[in-house]
Specification:
Radius of gyration: 20 Å
Number of helices: 9
CATH topology of the largest domain: Trna Endonuclease, Chain: A, domain 1
CATH class of the largest domain: Alpha Beta
Distance between the termini: 58 Å
Number of strands: 11
């Protein structure tokens, strides 16, 4: 027997089909509609009502009933549309996954054992590994400094967002860069919503500075995939992708290190 939808799934389904018509490509809803929907469905009070759209934007797949309305090659996303407002929108499928045919560069692991012992989840562990091993510096060829992690802020016409970690970078000419980083562990995938929000935040708060949006993804065998991403015609485009494997210093291949110069 098919499982009954949980309260988040049932609420988002009701919101979707209250608005959806054949041929729809986008429509908006607000927090008040979310509250009315779960009450109409007979669910007990949900304290953090904003967690319903948040969960489907970043953590969980939309219910099958919604996915079945997607035209071939397109997918529904939920994005912010202002304070307390959200938008369902059809976009081209733009999930980014690490390539399996890319060369892997060995990096001596500088992560403190104490940090590894107490990292609470994959995302936190990944951000710490990237930070302590200065992988952003290595990847971009910049000197970078972590300004803040888990930054919660608002962006005009989007609403509240959270940036996993924000770096400031400096190149050899003295030019400054703003580098938002999103971290994905386990089976989580890199998508358009967080990338577009990160870029919009930089455009709003740091006008005139160059944004270099980064995504980090855990792979198997202590490998970290790093992507530099940009938005082009509402699609995520990969500017560059590199894979780094963290190893003890005495496990480094000296011949490979020499060959990296080529």
């Amino acid at each position: 027997m098919a499982k009954s939808p949980n309260r988040y799934q049932a609420t988002i389904q009701k919101i979707f089909f209250d608005h959806f018509e054949n041929g729809s490509t986008e429509f908006e809803f607000d927090r008040e509609e979310l509250e009315k929907s779960y009450v109409a469905l007979g669910f007990p009070r949900i304290k953090n009502i904003g967690d319903i759209p948040y969960s489907f934007r970043y953590r969980n797949a939309l219910p099958d009933s919604i996915l079945e309305t997607q035209p071939e090659g397109l997918e529904w996303i939920i994005e912010g549309a202002g304070k307390g407002r959200y938008r369902f929108r059809l976009v081209k499928r733009t999930r980014i996954s690490p390539r399996d045919d890319l060369v892997c560069t060995d990096i001596p692991d500088a992560t403190p054992e104490l940090i590894r012992a107490y990292a609470l989840d994959d995302e936190q562990a990944l951000l710490a590994i990237v930070r302590y091993n200065r992988l952003i510096d290595t990847f971009l060829g910049l000197t970078t400094y972590s300004l803040q992690n888990h930054l919660r802020t608002t962006v005009q016409n989007i609403g509240q967002i959270e940036i996993d970690e924000l770096y400031i970078g400096l190149d050899k000419r003295g030019c400054h860069y703003v580098i938002p980083v999103q971290a994905k562990g386990g089976k989580d995938q890199i998508g358009i919503v967080q990338t577009s929000q990160d870029i919009r935040f930089v455009q709003d708060r740091f006008p005139g500075m160059r944004c270099r949006a980064i995504a980090a993804q855990f792979m198997q065998d202590e490998v970290v995939a790093l992507f530099e991403l940009t938005l082009q015609d509402d699609e995520i485009k990969v500017v560059e992708e590199r894979h780094y494997r963290l190893v003890p210093a005495d496990h480094l291949n000296r011949e490979a290190i020499r060959n990296y110069r080529d």
